[in-house]
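In line with agreed milestones, the collection of sequences with tokenised folds has grown. A representative record is reproduced below.
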Amino acid sequence: MIISLRLRLLLWLLIPLTAFVAISAMLSYRSARQTADLIQDHALLASAQVIAGEIQWLDGLPHASVPPAALELLVSPEQDQVYYQVITDQDSLLAGRPDFPLALRFPLSAPAFSTIDYHGQMLRVVSQVRTLYNAGQLHKIAILVGQTRHARDQMLADLWRPSLHRQIAMLLLAVALVVIGLSMELRPLMHLKDQLAARDTTSLSPIKAGQLQLELRPIVEAINQTIQRLNTQVSAQKRFIADAAHQLRTPLTLLDSQIQFARRLSDENRRAEALQVLQAMQESSRNMTELTNKLLLLSQAEAANTTAFIRQPVDLLAVSAGVLEEIVDLAQRKNIDLGLETKLQHAWVMGNEALFTAMMMNLVDNAIRYTPVSGKVTVTITANNEQVEIGVSDNGPGIPAEVRDRVFERFFRNAAPGQDGTGLGLAIVKEIVIAAQGSVTLNASAQQHGLNVLLQLPACTAPVMLGHDENKPTKSEQQF
């Protein structure tokens, strides 16, 4: 396969030009051949007519003489040989050679021309008939004149070759001009290549099109769009690192202070106080571990919109039921009524099962965390042919309408003082939903008290699973 753009463009021009030159040369050859044949035929016919004009009756018999002028008409620099025959309709030879083919004699009307092989050489022959009257009787006399084709062939070459040479010269000139033109027109593209190669590896500034042609500007625009996306990604990573460092600084500082304080507690009488410090250190370590896990999960959720994650049909009903089974102990400790309501057997969406599990875990964990003792948290799942809707509602304090958009920001917390949380749960949920091409909204619950989180995700077809029992019961409309 030819990978050179210059060579490919040259071929696209050279192929039709070559075809044009070949067709033009063929037409020129045909025209030159017709001209050469016409000139030779005209000379042959003139010679035959001169001979026919010299035929006369003498003593009651036809007599033919061949004047020198008749043969001089066919003289050529190539020394062509001339043959002639004058014969009556009674096969009486009056002049010339007797062995011309019979088929050439006595054409029906006008003079006839033909090309024959005569003793190993090609002849162009004309047959002319003259009618004579004698004593009221009609007699026909045929005059045949033939000439070899050397002069005609030389004339054909003289007429055709200059035209062919001109066309080949024009083709070569066109190729040379195209090569020069391509080299000049590709200079802006080469300049763009050099500009990209010379850029700093950390530079994410847009590329200037400069003198680039209009047809090539979309390439620069596409590169600039890619650079813009990289800028956005790098900014997100920098913001993530800055936020993570900021959030980890506080628990690390607290843990360090607690360790220094514990090292000073050498008195056995202060053992109880030391135990309290160790318990506080364990709590700080647990909080830091939770924060680290959340940060890692947020990083995975941000990367879920790339091809690095495997996407496949996921049953959100099964995922939700598994999450509720796992978190039911936390709900029971607060005597919260945790339930799943649905009439579906399955709810298939396209995405990553691990991330969907983390999404549901964060939603249900937030609902339980902010719902008071003896409250209620309900997960509802509905679907149609186009989308799957998941609602997680609680009867907690809810979120004021003016800050509902901000709760999706990282580390933003709408919690009471002293209440646990990292401020990353809903940010993680939003990233996972966006990666699945869905949407998430926050609304007040139906009782105008609490919060209802509504997820809308595109539905997909169920995968083909061998041995799957469609009648197997699912966890729907149950309490946990």
Notes: The mean pLDDT is 79. The first helix runs from residue 5 to 53.
